[in-house]
Amino acid sequence: MTVKRAEMQNDLAMTVVLVSAAMLFVTLFMGYGIYRSSAAIWPPTGFNPISLLLPTLSTVLIAISSWFSHQTTVATREGHFARAHGHLNITLALGTGFMVSQALLWANLKANGLLVASGIYTSILYSFTWIHAFHVALGLASLIYLKIVLSDKTRLVLQKAINVEKFWHFLGIIWGVMFLILFVL
Fold first, then answer.
1. I need a surface site. Which of 6, 38, 88, 104 has the fewest CB within 10 A?
2. What is the rounded distance in angstroms from the CA atom of residue 32 to the CA atom of residue 95?
3. Cβ-proximal residues to 1 (8 Å cutoff; 6+ apart), any chain
4. Please, which pLDDT band fits residue 17 given cuts at 50, 70 and 90?
5. How many helices (H) and strands (E) does the chain have?
6. What is the rounded CA–CA span in Å between residue 64 and residue 5?
7. Which fold has domain 3-184?
């Protein structure tokens, strides 16, 4: 198989992954929109607004990690593999920090009596964040995979870096939308 063909197959596979995940999240956002638009008051009676501290921390962490993910791809493209590894390590650390901030958010919700079984509002909140966290875990696994293959130093490793970056940026965009609709608006 030629390098160009392998690149095209990798790019097509990532496109399928991104479209599939986008369809999942768009469906969730539409369901949330229908539920939210039919609510007379928000948040529903009996629920206090959620503190923005941990969701904001999560947003900052994933945004900065996205920048470092891009820097990983730039360094890989330029053949600076040591720098690419450094940026990738920072991306991994920030991505792990994002997951820790999510775990703290869930612990905080639980401590405030906001359980999955508390109603549709909390079920939606947990569902969104758990599904996103699952995808972030996949993203972290992809970053670890990239760390392993980065020493390959071939043209294909650049395509892998580009695809991992696309997925990581996608997760950041989804989190940004979630942050706005679940916690800010």
1. 38
2. 26
3. none
4. very high
5. 5, 0
6. 33
7. Four Helix Bundle (Hemerythrin (Met), subunit A) (1.20.120)
Q: Which residue has the higher pLDDT, 49 or 7?
A: 49
Instruction: Compute the distance between CA of residue 65 and CA of residue 39 in angstroms, rounded to an integer.
Output: 35
> How is residue 25 written in tokens?
């999240």
User: CB under 8 Å to 80, separation ≥6 — which residues?
Assistant: none
The CA angle 129-130-131, to the nearest 5 degrees, is 95
Helix (H, G, I), strand (E, B) or coil at 1: coil
40: Cα within 13 Å, side-chain hemisphere: 1
Give the whole-angstrom CA distance, residue 34 versus residue 119: 16
Neighbours of 43 (CB within 10 A): 15
Sign of torsion over alpha carbons 148, 154, 158, 159: negative
Return the structure tokens found at 49.
């607004």
Which residue pairs from 23-31 have beta carbons closer than 8 angstroms and sit at least 24 positions apart in sequence? Answer: 24/131, 25/131, 25/132, 25/174, 25/177, 28/127, 28/128, 28/131, 29/177, 29/181, 31/124
